[in-house]
Amino acid sequence: MASLLLSLPSRPFLRNLALKCHHTLRMFSSSTTTNPYLMYRLTHYGSSFDDINVTSNIHYFDPVKEDEVIVRDKAFPMELRNTSLVGMSHGWGVFNVESDEHKALYVSDYCNPCGSKSNPKVIPLHPMGQPNITQKRIITNAAMTCSPDQSKDFVVAANCLGLEINFFRPCGKPEYSGSGGFKTQSHYFDQSKEILTCPKMKELRFCNLPELTQSEWELLDSCSPPTAHLVESPSGQRFLIKWYAQNYQPGEIMTFLCRGTKRFMVFREEEDMNMCYTEDIGDLCIFLGGSEPFSVKASSFPGLKPNSIYFAGEGFGVYDIATRKPRSFRPKSPSAFSKTPVFPLWIPPMSL
Description:
Elements: E1 2-4, E2 37-45, E3 55-62, E4 67-75, E5 84-89, E6 92-98, E7 103-108, E8 122-124, E9 139-144, E10 156-160, E11 164-168, E12 181-183, E13 204-207, H1 214-221, E14 227-232, E15 238-245, E16 261-269, E17 274-278, E18 284-288, E19 294-297, E20 308-313, E21 315-320, E22 325-328, E23 345-347
Parallel strand pairs: 13-17, 18-20
Antiparallel strand pairs: 1-13, 2-3, 2-23, 3-4, 5-6, 6-7, 7-8, 9-10, 10-11, 11-12, 14-15, 15-16, 16-17, 18-19, 20-21, 21-22
């Protein structure tokens, strides 16, 4: 049995905050929700970003049909014109704006395929204030306790380069003014409102580790250090996934191919924080990318492959956990995906 503390990963797109989010993805029939979507590209239309009438086409990939979905002519909110999309959680984008005076965040349903086309919601969060040394670091990802549509009393956690995590609440709540932060060597902690003042670290113990052949070890050795991702099933079962990938070479063009991804290792949480290796997660599909991880039941979305991981970032494709084999997506309209993907952001099923 091995025991270790997971360190924060350093590669862009894969720096998932790995916060334990206490929510269960509600499962609806396919007639009342969208499929899971991958938002991979934005195109804007207008004379300039100062033009109030700038609109966007948002391009999604539907893994059920393996084809493109486009939401056209969506209003591009003025508040988001000079921001960077640094994360996505519960279908809401987290946008960062930086200046010499401050660094601030917004959350918006602008990227949500079910959000308003004419008037996307934009919610400002309390700014970080005058940046200190750690706050000047780049925000690499973010997560939310819940969707703002579910509760107005939500918390956003922003992960910066290094070991800094800062917390934010919506503006207009004086009792929640400012943000909190702490440094930790652990990659995992229970998320709750109390964490702002009393974070609880969890040490994970790994057991039932797989026996690997020499060629499999050589393959893993050829990869960059794995990134670790926590995800919760609709029933509340938790899994930790290690993602092994080879870095792209300078000048390489990312396409809808599995490319750099070579292997995933899946660990199921058992009692006493034991994480046991498994090659069977049943009817589940796990979605990993630059957004907060989530899972769905494959049987609720005919066309999805059970016991699989759908991934975006270090290549794009689906990984069969049982056979340990990744495959590239096979879009029905290849020309639609000829341009380099920009955002490897998965969006969970949204209620229509």
